[in-house]
């Protein structure tokens, strides 16, 4: 085969498995050869000219076979991403990874890579979200001189916040075989609170997984027959704009407000199963106004967008809880769509119920955002502008 990828006469095409192995070996040989050449300044995978290897601090990080395969997969895209963000040169060499750069950067990169590769060994996908989260944790650790260990704050779940095994725990497997794990220590703390308390408040910005993880726990409880029903509730409040008259019956009118919950149900249970459960009454999706007068026993109840409730509505919802039931209340107090001058029921609950035993308040922050990396930066920018 020529350098342009053209097959020579009589040459057979390389099969996919062979091609994968060949690409990996070529990549490793190319990077290793470049590192060993000390006559010219070393050029990283990102094209940045760095100091000569002899003048750099070197650290050798042992790799498992799976970790090495993860690093060299996808045309070295992950290696490029790690190099660009960690500001060190990464050189796969046999069964290890060489880190070259300034001492402080190498120490930081080594600590972060140990966690990421431990997660990769456990089957967790390593992407830009996971990398950015570990980088942010490192900066927080330097700022605080220790991991945050408050039980209800978001940045870390406990004094073991730097234990990568916490993020490797599979909490649910979807019908398509996708394993769901907490992606941040804040999410881990939130899931633990749901397990340990009958009423849990999950408060934080968009993209932190508040609603999705609550639906996952509800679906898991229903499948394990720990509850006999799942009730999903949302206040029907427009997000900053008037939608006017909506045609159709009650269900058709409220569907636009409940779409995020439907999406989470379809993902966790499968669209067919979710539809069947709703038809049989095992899952109810209702507007908050229709909760008055009910008592829900053996149920898993989720109130989403709780920042758009009024204090009387919040009180009404929380007092629907019956025997053997569990409730999760989620909301973002920075996105309140109530009329001007109307107090949020979620803010009110923080003040009134903060000291009540048996309740848990979990606060997620921009560190816990698991959407596109830009979402985290957007949230941070708005937070700065509002101060």
What does this molecule look like?
This protein is 42% helix and 14% strand. The termini are far apart. Mean pLDDT is 78; it is low at 2-15, 33-46, 49-54, 146-161 and 238-243. It has helices spanning 16-36, 65-72, 77-86, 103-121, 128-144, 185-196, 210-223, 250-269, 271-279, 311-318, 345-353, 373-386, and strands at 57-62, 89-93, 96-101, 172-173, 179-180, 199-203, 229-234, 283-287, 299-303, 326-331, 359-363. It contains twelve helices and eleven strands. The strands form three sheets. The protein has a six-stranded parallel sheet with strand order 8-7-9-10-6-11, with helices on both faces. By secondary structure, the chain is of the alpha/beta class.
Radius of gyration: 25 Å
Q: Summarize the amount of helix as a percent range.
A: 40-55%
Biggest β-sheet description: 6 strands, parallel
User: SSE order in H/E notation?
Assistant: HEHHEEHHEEHEHEHHEEHEHEH
Spell out the blueprint of helices and strands.
Layout: H1 16-36, E1 57-62, H2 65-72, H3 77-86, E2 89-93, E3 96-101, H4 103-121, H5 128-144, E4 172-173, E5 179-180, H6 185-196, E6 199-203, H7 210-223, E7 229-234, H8 250-269, H9 271-279, E8 283-287, E9 299-303, H10 311-318, E10 326-331, H11 345-353, E11 359-363, H12 373-386
Helix pairs in contact: 3-5, 4-5, 6-7, 7-8, 8-9, 10-11
Which key features would you list for this structure?
387 residues, alpha/beta, 6-stranded parallel β-sheet, disordered N terminus
Quick structural summary:
This protein is of the alpha/beta class. It is built from twelve helices and eleven strands.
């Amino acid at each position: 085969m020529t350098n342009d990828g053209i097959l020579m006469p009589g040459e057979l095409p390389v099969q996919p498995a062979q091609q994968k192995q060949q690409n990996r070996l070529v990549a490793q040989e190319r990077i290793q050869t470049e590192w060993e050449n000390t006559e010219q300044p070393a050029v990283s995978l990102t094209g940045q000219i760095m100091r000569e290897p002899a003048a750099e601090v070197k650290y050798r990080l042992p790799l498992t076979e799976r970790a090495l395969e993860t690093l060299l997969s996808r045309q070295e895209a992950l290696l490029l991403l790690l190099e660009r963000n960690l500001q060190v040169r990464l050189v796969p060499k046999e069964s290890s990874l060489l880190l070259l750069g300034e001492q402080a950067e190498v120490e930081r990169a080594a600590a972060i890579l140990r966690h990421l590769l431990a997660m990769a060994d456990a089957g967790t996908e390593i992407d830009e979200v996971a990398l950015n989260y570990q980088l942010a944790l490192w900066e927080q650790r330097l700022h605080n001189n220790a991991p945050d260990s408050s039980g209800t704050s978001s940045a870390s779940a406990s004094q073991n916040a730097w234990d990568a095994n916490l993020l490797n725990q599979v909490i649910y497997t979807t019908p398509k075989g996708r394993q769901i794990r907490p992606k941040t220590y804040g999410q881990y703390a939130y899931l633990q609170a749901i397990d340990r308390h009958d009423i849990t408040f999950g408060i934080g910005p968009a993209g932190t997984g508040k609603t999705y993880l609550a639906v996952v726990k509800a679906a898991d409880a229903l499948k394990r027959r720990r509850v006999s029903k799942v009730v999903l509730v949302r206040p029907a409040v427009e997000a900053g704009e008037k939608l006017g008259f909506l045609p159709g019956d009650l269900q058709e009118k409220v569907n636009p407000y409940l779409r995020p919950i439907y999406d989470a149900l379809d993902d966790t249970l499968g669209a067919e199963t979710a539809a069947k459960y709703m038809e049989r009454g095992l899952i109810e999706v209702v507007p908050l106004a229709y909760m008055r007068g009910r008592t829900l026993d053996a149920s898993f109840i989720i109130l989403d967008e709780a920042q758009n409730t009024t204090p009387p509505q919040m009180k009404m919802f929380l007092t629907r809880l019956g025997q053997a039931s569990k409730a999760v209340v989620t909301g973002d107090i920075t996105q309140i769509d109530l009329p001007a001058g109307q107090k949020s029921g979620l803010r009110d609950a923080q003040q009134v119920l903060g000291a009540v035993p048996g309740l848990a308040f979990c606060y997620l922050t921009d560190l816990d955002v698991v959407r596109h990396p830009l979402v985290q930066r957007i949230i941070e920018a708005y937070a700065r502008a509002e101060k």
